[in-house]
Amino acid sequence: MRSNATAVQEALEGMDYPKMKKDILSYAKKHHASENIISDLLDIPDKEYKSSADIRQVFLESERIKEDYEKIDKDIESWKKQ
Fold this sequence. Notes:
The protein has 82 residues and is mainly alpha-helical. The chain has 4 helices and 2 strands; from the N terminus they run αβααβα. Helices cover 67% and strands 5% of the residues.
């Protein structure tokens, strides 16, 4: 995912919950969310989201995974140099 949790939350500001993924996508498109946000929303699990916090959690988890992979890559490069 390219978008951060805060940007997504701002793009969906004012949306009522609960909402299914398809409804979240529709809202984002109607409110002119960026292409990156739309693309990232396409990747979220297809389920009902009860609040903005539910969506935010998906993006926070993705950010943590990305950071973990970056750390692993740095560690591998460091080990190769030893």
